[in-house]
Structures are given as structure tokens and as C-alpha cells.
Amino acid sequence: MILSSEFVHAWPLWVGLFALLGYGVAALPVAAVARANAPEAAPPRWPSLALGVGWVMHALALLLHVGAFGAAQVGVRFGFAPVLSLTVWLVIAVHAVESRFVPLPAVRRALAAAGGFSALLALLYPGEVPTHTGSPWLPLHWMLGVVSYGLFGVALLHAWLLGSAERRLRLKALRDGAGPLGLPLLRLERLTFRFVEAGFVVLSAALLFGVVFASPWRWDHKTVLSLLGWGTFAVLVVGRHWRGWRGKHAVRWLYAGALLLLLAYVGSRFVFEVLLRRGAVA
Question: Cα separation of 64 and 78, whole Å?
Fold first, then answer.
């Protein structure tokens, strides 16, 4: 049986809608209500299962979107929404692995909301196949760049948890130096900057591949913002190891570097694709 073209083109939409449904169920505050009614009872498992279903459907939707499944133009499709969606998917993936070793139940709803928003954005703005790619090694540059986005996204998630823990400690809501998830603050801080360091290494590799294989090399806004973001994280890593930067001072550098990287590709592509309505370029 030959599938109709309309059915083939509808696959990314249906899979994306199933991802939204899974994330929507995972974002419900049912577990918190259940614990309030029965504090000694174990929290229900179905919100976490719904997050897993949403994550799997999200992965399939990304494959269909980025792979331009059912599209007339063959090639890998890029754009601000697919990159942002893939970044959030990577953050959820790291959370799933990390939660096996470190309890992080309090971030489920936030991750589900972020996953649903990014999946919806990818449905609305699926991106386009670049008009030129140059070297066949350039996709590795893009892939490493997205992975660095994901690692820095996880670092931001931990920084947010760290800030929340510190605020609650100041209000004397917690004791014994424990964070809102039962994590010691020093351990949470170490996790944050391990992801920063890993993201910095991957980002450095991505920029190196871009310099070596980009033809011709262009000093555009994306390049400048990416290098500024890399420099910001370099200062943070050096300051952390040599000057012992901690707390709010280090987190501000993390936020600044992440903002520069977000503007470098996602922000610039949003302007081109949505505000200026231009096609995708490499």
C-alpha cells in the first residue's frame, strides 16, 4: 500500500502533537496534590512516565523535522526552532540519566513545560534546508554546537536549582545546608560547573571545526556572538579554577555566556526566519 503524500506530510505533525500531549500530562501538578493529601504515600509514577513518552515522541518529531521527512527538498533542515527544540530535548535526556543517581523530582514540571513549548515551536517553525553547506565536515560543527547548547542548558538548570536553594536557605525554610531537593549545595554547585566545563570543551571543538572547514570564513553576527560567548565561558572556567569563583558571581558569568550563545544562532535565526522571513543558510 502506497501512503498518500498528505499522510506522509502529516507524520511530523501527529508525532509532535503526541509529544505535546505527553509533556502536557507530565506538567500537571497531580503528584504534588497527591503528596499533600497523603504525605506518606509514594508519589505516582505516571507523571514521570508521561515525561518519558513526551521525550520519546519529541525525539521522533525531531528526526522527522530535522531530516525533512516528507518535504520536497532533500537534506538536513535547520532553523532556530529545531535547534532550540533539540537543545531542550538534550537537557531532558541528561536529566533522565542524572535522576538515576541524583534525585531531581522538583524539575519535572519545568522540563515538561520547556519540552512542550520547544516542540510546539518546532511545529510552527520547522526550518529549511540550507542553501549551501560548504565542506561535508560542517554538519559536525553544527552537531557539536547543539551538544554544547544542551550541556550549557543543563548547567543553567542546575544554576537555577542552586539559586532556589540559596533563597530558601535565607528564608530558613531548609536546614543543614541542603538544597530544595535534598542535595548539598556544594555538590549541586560542583555539578553545575562540571557541565559548564564539558560544554566549554564541546563548544571549543565546534568553533575549531567551523574555523577549519567553513569556506569562506565569515565575520558575521553569529560568529562574533559565538566567540564572545566562548570568551565569556573561558573567563568563567579560568576564574573558577584559579580564582575560586563561586556563588552569584560565577552564575552571572554563566548566564551572560549562555545569553550570548542563545543570541548567536537561535536569536539570529529567529530574526531572519520570523521577522525578516528569509530562507535558511548554513
Answer: 12
